Amino acid sequence: TDMQTILIPVNFTKSNKIAVNYAIAFAKHQPTKIILLNAYHTIPFNWDSSDESLNRESVELAEKSQLKLEKLAKKIRKKSNAACEKLSIKGFAADVIIEQSTVIEPDLILIGTEILNAINFLVLGSLTNQVINKINGNILIIPETAPKKPFQKIAFVTIPYNDDSQELNYLMNLTNKFESQFHIIHLLPSETSERELNYDLKKHELDVNFSYPDHSFIFHSIVAEEPLELLGEYVVDNRIDTVIVLKRETEIINKLIAHHSTKRPTYHTNIPIFILKKEFNNHLNHLTKEEISNQ
Fold first, then answer.
1. H or E stretch including 139?
2. How many CB atoms neighbour CB 163 within 10 A?
3. 131 phi and psi, to 5 degrees?
4. Which of 65, 86, 91 shows the shortest CA–CA distance to 11?
5. Please, are residues 261 and 122 in contact by the beta-carbon 8 Å criterion?
6. Kindly report the CA angle at 131 between 169 and 137, in degrees rounded to 5?
7. Mean pLDDT confidence for 166-195
8. What are 210-221's pLDDT values in tens digits?
9. Is the peptide bond before 272 cis (omega within 30 degrees of 0)?
10. Which of the residue ranges 78-87, 168-177, 273-282 would you say has the lowest mean pLDDT?
11. Measured over all CA atoms, what is the biggest interatomic distance in the chain, rounded to whole angstroms?
């Protein structure tokens, strides 16, 4: 089995501990390398190198970063067989995360909402999606109040009529490992006709059930001009613990992350958001339907 690489940007807050626990859960099912990444900087960032006090402060920050990273790494090594690496890099969090995601090319990035709040421009409207697009890899955004165990009940939120077969293969492999309950939620505009509801969606449900006969799915459709509130009600009523969206669903991502980052009292302040955006080109993601069914 291929080794997966998980990158965890950390700022040593509560959500980091949850992200580490999620990474350990992933590592139980597949050989894993976990990379802990901390970005540190002084104010001002671009100082005169002759300023000894700022240079001393930078050295102290680097030392503290390394000590705290090692403490997290020890926890990972104690609770899993995952390989663990530590990266302490001087710079602003957004720049460092984007740069290292490109260098490392991780299979998954686990990022806490406290990190998002620290990256101010991440939450300013359309810039949210611009930064998400610059990060290379599937992204699991984890709030500080997230459930302790990941992927018990997942909801794959999709717009109908898109080809999501590769994503479904990936998710089926994931849900097999965690024995997840799998919900598929279709978001539809308010003008959707009865024919589309009664025929096209039923056809999609039949196709999915035919492709994965050994698995059960719970299908749900939301028809509304502003479906996010209804999505929230469904998530709460069914105790969903992870909402999964595709990178192309930019409007959904923007709204979900905006709620996370502003900490508005909405349903998903404690629900992780899994953004699938990496190309599905490795062995794990290219398992055939037959291979998945036989696992």
1. strand 138-142
2. 7
3. -70, -45
4. 65
5. yes
6. 30
7. 84
8. 888 888 899 998
9. no
10. 273-282
11. 72
Q: According to the model, what pLDDT value does residue 147 have? A: 80
Q: Which residues contact 208 (CB under 8 A, 6 or more apart)?
A: 168, 184, 217
Paired sense of beta strands 138-142 and 108-112, if any:
parallel
How many percent of the chain have pLDDT more than 70?
73
Tell me how far the alpha carbon of residue 17 is from its chain's centroid. Answer: 15
Q: What is the mean pLDDT of residues 63-77?
A: 92
How many whole angstroms separate alpha carbon 121 and alpha carbon 22? 26
Q: What is the Cα–Cα distance from 186 to 200, expressed in whole angstroms?
A: 11
The token pair at 291 is 């291979």
- Output Rg (C-alpha) for the chain, integer angstroms: 20
- DSSP 8-state secondary structure symbol assigned to residue 199: I
Unique residue bearing structure tokens 């000590």? 67
pLDDT at residue 160 in the model: 67
270 vs 2, 109, 118, 141, CA distance in Å? 31, 18, 18, 10
Query: CA separation (Å) from 218 to 55, 114, 273?
Result: 57, 32, 19
